[in-house]
Amino acid sequence: MRKPLMAGNWKMHKTIPEAIAMVKELKPLVADVKDVDILICPVFTAVYPLANELKGSNIKVGAQNVYWEPKGAFTGEIAVNMLLDAGCSFVIIGHSERRQYFGESDETVNKRTKATLAAGLIPIVCVGETLQERESNDTFKVIEKQVKDGIKNFSKEEAEKIVIAYEPVWAIGTGKTATPQQAQEVHEFIRKTYSQMYGNDAGGKVRILYGGSVKPDNVSELMKQPDIDGGLVGGASLEAASFAKLVKFNG
Ligand code: PEP
């Protein structure tokens, strides 16, 4: 009932020609995939050229961040209507690297998510605990706060459209993946929390992605978990062959 989503977060990698070359290779590898939504989130400069290159394909383009004001004197920022204009359909919001290096908070996550939904784009809201928080048994407390504060004050209809990505900070780019059981228990907790906030319908419909060193050799075990609905993938999304294997996680 929940369609899996495999999303590539390219972070600050790839020039426009490199980005185009990758998707030209990827397109035929995944052309037959119908049961998985496929998304690439490149750097801002590559959004428009990639969206053009991918027109008519089954691969969508997203951005890695967005500002909540529609326009104005906000040097260095970008508005949702500009992303829509450039061909985006998704936006990653509150990635741990943005929380860690650029002062992102649950409050700004909430504002970005509101603006994104209002423009008709789909937000992918990232949550996740640090290693220290996990080791002090604070994982559920941290995740609950991020979900309740970052994704508050939406209608049921809006809440159903939001995608959540659980990304334990200690697993991002480290090669240390959460075990399928560790990931599943947090995904289940997020779904329960979301159901309390927006009702069982929204809790049942919201897609929850796992992120943190997802690779071709661990994707199928992760995807077998009942509350894991896809992946948000950094490193393994940069090469067409490995990303195609993730998209085709079920063989
Ligand atoms: C990410 O960028 O969100 C991520 C999970 O990175 P990686 O897959 O490289 O750990």
Give a topology summary.
Layout lengths: L4 E5 L6 H15 L6 E5 L2 H10 L5 E5 L16 H7 L3 E4 L2 H6 L4 H13 L3 E6 L3 H5 L3 H12 L5 H6 L1 E4 L13 H19 L1 H6 L1 E5 L7 H5 L6 E4 L6 H8 L4
Parallel strand pairs: 1-2, 1-8, 2-3, 3-4, 4-5, 5-6, 6-7, 7-8
Helix pairs in contact: 1-2, 1-12, 5-7, 7-9
The protein binds phosphoenolpyruvate (PEP).
Overview of the molecule:
The protein is an alpha/beta fold and 251 residues long. It contains 12 helices and 8 strands. The protein has an 8-stranded parallel beta barrel, surrounded by 5 helices. The protein is globular, with a radius of gyration of 17 Å. Phosphoenolpyruvate is lined by residues 9, 11, 167, 172-173, 211-214, 232-236.
What's this model, at a glance?
The protein is an alpha/beta fold. It has helices spanning 16-30, 44-53, 80-86, 96-101, 106-118, 131-135, 139-150, 156-161, 180-198, 200-205, 219-223, 240-247, and strands at residues 5-9, 37-41, 59-63, 90-93, 122-127, 163-166, 207-211, 230-233.
